[in-house]
Amino acid sequence: SVPPPDYGKAVSVYDRALGFDIGAEMRAGILYRKAKALQASGGHEQALSVWHAYLTEFDPDWDPVRECTAVGSRPHVLAGAERLEVRYELGLTQMAARRYPEARATLMDLQRLSQDHAGGAALGGHVACALIQTYRLHVRPPARLQHTLRPTRALLGRHAGLARSVSAAFQPPGPYHRA
Questions:
Q1: 120 pLDDT exceeds 70?
Q2: With contact defined as beta carbons under 8 Å apart, do 151 and 113 qualify?
Q3: Distance CA 32, CA 84 (A)
Q4: Higher pLDDT, 132 or 11
Q5: Rounded alpha-carbon distances, angstroms, from residue 158 to 3, 9, 62, 165
Q6: DSSP characters for 78-115?
Q7: DSSP string for 139-152
Q8: Rounded CA Rg of the chain
Q9: What is the mean pLDDT of the chain?
Q10: Fewer CB within 10 Å, N- or C-terminus of the chain?
Q11: pTM for this entry
């Protein structure tokens, strides 16, 4: 039988590696893997701080104060290869930590940003699905239903071939039906 993953040990190895003098690309990869390990272990708050550290260090479009896309780019910051994916993971981690309004803002910001970047098209449907979930998970008043249905319709229109689109279309009414 295979033993379960030891995320705590992985995080301590990543912490040790980050203590060495390593290149920017390797540092970005280690921060990414450390945050994923923390996220998998349920340490959502710690994962959030690592995602923020990654974005502050490796995303020239990230504003560390406002925690969204900066108005003016920070040209001195080296662009990390996974920066759009990191923003997506940040949104998912915020949802897991039950920070739904923050997750919604992060994902809406990512949606705007990904339209301008070549790698953003691949994430588009996944971001839209996650964005829909931010509306449905934390509030049930009927007034929120319209806020959820508009992005759901847009998602189905743009990403009809994505399996998650069809699944997302059935998610918003669920909490209202059970109410």
A1: no
A2: no
A3: 12
A4: 11
A5: 42, 42, 27, 9
A6: PPPTTHHHHHHHHHHHHHHTT-HHHHHHHHHHHHHHHT
A7: ---THHHHHHHHHH
A8: 18
A9: 78
A10: N
A11: 0.74
What one-letter code names the amino acid at 52? H
Question: Is residue 79 within 8 Å of residue 67, measured between CB atoms?
Answer: no
How far apart are alpha carbons 82 and 84 in whole angstroms?
6
- 63 DSSP β-pair partners: 68
Rounded to an integer, what distance in angstroms lies between the CA atom of residue 57 and that of residue 51?
10
Longest dimension (CA), the chain: 55
Residue 172 token pair = 């918003």
What whole-number percentage of the chain has pLDDT above 70?
64
Pairwise CA distance, residues 106 & 31, whole Å:
19
The residues that bridge with 68 in the sheet, in sequence order, are 63
Q: How far apart are the first and last CA of the chain?
A: 43
Q: Looking up tokens 């997750």, which residue turns up?
A: 103
Three-point CA angle 79, 121, 36, nearest 5°: 55
